[in-house]
Amino acid sequence: MIEAVTFDFWNTLCFEGSVGHIRGRRLDAWSGLLEEAGYATERDVLEKAFDKSWERFVARWTAGDHVAFAEAAEEIVTDLGYDVPADVRTALVEAFGRAGDDAELHLTPNVPQTLAALKEAGVRIGIVCDVGMTPSTTLRAHLDRHGVLASFDHWSFSDEVGCYKPDARIFTHALAGLGARPEATAHVGDLRRTDVAGALAMGMTAVRYTGVYDDDSQPEPEAHHVVGDHADLPGVLGLA
After folding, report:
1. Are strands 105-107 and 124-129 parallel, antiparallel or unpaired?
2. Between vectors from CA 145 to CA 140 and to CA 146, what angle results, nearest 5°?
């Protein structure tokens, strides 16, 4: 019997209104700040620095080497080669972190109804999320704005736990916070390498969600269940 369910955030609970939306907001903010400070920068130069930063992040994320958004922002300033004053550097880092605050993030279909159904079944609900470059405070604020934050009993965000999926530590953090046994817990996420592999290694029930992104980056591992609509989740977990 399933007693707890954890969810990934990106492309599982929420998705960007348009691809690269938050990245674009960061670029706009930095262009304005640098111009005001007297460091007018061609857009393509700034984009290349951001691209280099993302490639560096993906490599470190894949290797399980945790990086904070502030560190990534500092590295972009270094890549640009500007010896900016401390106040400008602080403003750039803060703008990088705040870019997602008012961003266009949407809940994936049927999330509120599914969370309500899980609660009705007596299931404890958590989040296990690799935040990327948007801090967990921002992600929680978006869930609150959509009226679903209170549905979660616990959350394990990488910037707070200090590691990424599929590292066992972030799943152990979630299970401990929920007071749940791995064999009685399901994890729902979109990525095979992080969500599916991490859950399987823990002895959890793995559910791959394909409603936003159907991960074809690698053929294995596959989850116990594959769902394209959260409304199907209670049924496949034997809770409906």
Report:
1. unpaired
2. 100
Identify which of 169, 226, 173, 220 has the alpha carbon closest to the alpha carbon of residue 197: 220
pLDDT higher than 90, residue 44: yes
> Does 240 have pLDDT greater than 90?
no
Whether 97 and 72 have beta carbons less than 8 Å apart is answered as no
Query: Mean pLDDT, to the nearest integer, of 140-156?
Result: 98
Report pLDDT for 40: 84
Q: DSSP string of the chain?
A: ---EEEE-SBTTTEEESSTTHHHHHHHHHHHHHHHHTT----HHHHHHHHHHHHHHHHHHHHHT----HHHHHHHHHHHHT----HHHHHHHHHHHHHTTTT--EEEPTTHHHHHHHHHHTT-EEEEEE--TTS-HHHHHHHHHHTT-GGG-SEEEEHHHHS--TT-HHHHHHHHHHHT--GGGEEEEES-IIIIIHHHHHHTPEEEEE-SS----S-S----SEEESSGGGHHHHTT--
